[in-house]
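Lecture 7 notes. Example A: sequence first, then its structure tokens.
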Amino acid sequence: MKIQPVKFLEGKISLPGDKSISHRAAILASMATGDTRIENFATNADCASTLDCLEKLGVKVRREDTTIFVKGVGKTGFQKPETEINCGNSGTTMRLLAGVLAGQNFDSVLTGDESLSKRPMQNLFIKFQLAEAQN
């Protein structure tokens, strides 16, 4: 089977307001070019942390109840944040954004609340070091 790259994707997908999917949908939308509408976005604090962090990276986000609108900046179009990026208590936000930020041309610092700061993140950094060593 041969898979060809596409220039754009258009369509509609209806999913329940799932926390894991909401994080990923917002981050993927931010890495896309153009406008994305996400319906049934989870309304918990962790997903709100992801949106707040994306806004600190220059992504325009508009919220209307469980629908969010994201103006994507492309995979390398994020802006260097003026301060540390606070992920609140969301480990998913920290782990996923660490991967996105590793591909940017600026340094950034991810922080979190006291609880998140105590959680193990060594595995994440080991993976980055291995990937860096292979390049």
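Example B, a different protein, same format:
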Amino acid sequence: MPTKDLGEVELTAQTQKRVSLGDGKDCVITPTVLADGNLQMDLSVERKGDDGKIQRLAQSRLTARPGQQCAISIGDMMVSLTPRLKAQ
């Protein structure tokens, strides 16, 4: 299974972050801060179709502590990242 390491990704609660995976695909991360301080992240892999519309290829949900590297399988790809929560 191919792996894409996104490195450190700065996130803002409830704000989507789009990160390029290459080959015309993006990983869209939507973070939610949980009561215990962990981040729940909804991740989806999307690409723009020939008609210009966004196609969602796969999606997953992951819970992790900010600053801790994590990885999850999304469709046919393994994605790893270290989430950082942007101070508000």
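Note on Example B: The CA atoms of residues 39 and 76 lie 23 Å apart. Strands lie at 3-11, 17-22, 25-33, 39-48, 54-64, 70-74, 77-85.
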